[in-house]
Amino acid sequence: MKTLTNLFALLLISASLFAKDPATKAFEVTITGKGQPMLFIPGATCSGEEWKETVARYGKDHECHVFTLAGYAGVAPIDTQAYLDTYKTEIISYINDKKLNKVILVGHSIGGFLSLCIAAELKDHLQKVIVVDALPFYAAVFNPNAKAGFDEAKAKSRLANFDRMDEGKLKASQIMIASSLCADSTRWEMIAAWGAKSDHKTMAWTMTEMLGNDMRQHIASIRVPVLVMAAFKPRPDYPAFTKEYALSLYAAQYEQCKSCTVHVTPAAKHFIMYDAPEWYYQEIDTFIKGV
């Protein structure tokens, strides 16, 4: 009986320890290099491998913390109804728990959106933020009168669409999405594979959450310098979509962030790091070295 009691107590202690470590559930992270910390949050469905070349470049002088969010690219999903809030909270806890200071926070797409959310809330620890093609309120791009709020019916519809696809259709769909977001065709298979391995509910819910979350006023509280790299690629079938138009769209969304600078790519789709690497690295180099 005493043995059973001790075993039960041990199980309770173990359960308590796991309950106090939610960060291991919200993301996977790898750490390489030494120096000033740089944290990299990838885009929707993407693995932290998205940052491979970027980390190779900056890992010589920085300690690189590369995240893959739960539910993306084969990482086990979390059980929550508020994915983005959970990611944000746990990344902030990660920064605090590891006592990271003068952090350069880098995010792409939904990772860029999360970077804005983190910077708006975390008043210490950050030094600079780099946002790779992300906006504080995506829905307003498609509908200027869009209202904030989570559309559960839309999330369920997206989930049903994913669930209806067999493996072949899902992969074909992800290839099509990759080709629309990245001009470098050599990257499509990799991007599509990440998407095909992602959890369907996580994909549906995170996209719907981001579209319904309006951060345009909240980013006014960001005090550290923010570099926003905005994707632009000329399209002959849309002559009105000019570089100047793209800049005006992004500048309007970031108007309340007084420490923010928006730079538009010469020619790149959403995966700027793949489509315009020289421009991308030059922007980061200049921003990091700036006062």
From TrEMBL:
GO molecular function, one term: hydrolase activity
Record keyword Hydrolase present: yes
Keywords for this protein: Hydrolase, Signal
Pfam families: Abhydrolase_6
GO cellular component: membrane
Signal sequence, start to end: 1-19
Positions of the AB hydrolase-1 domain: 39-281
InterPro entries: AB_hydrolase_1 (IPR000073), AB_hydrolase_fold (IPR029058), AB_hydrolase_sf (IPR050266)
PANTHER family associated with the record: AB HYDROLASE SUPERFAMILY PROTEIN YCLE (PTHR43798:SF31), MONOACYLGLYCEROL LIPASE (PTHR43798)
Protein name in UniProt: AB hydrolase-1 domain-containing protein
Biological source species: Pedobacter lusitanus
Lineage: Bacteria, Pseudomonadati, Bacteroidota, Sphingobacteriia, Sphingobacteriales
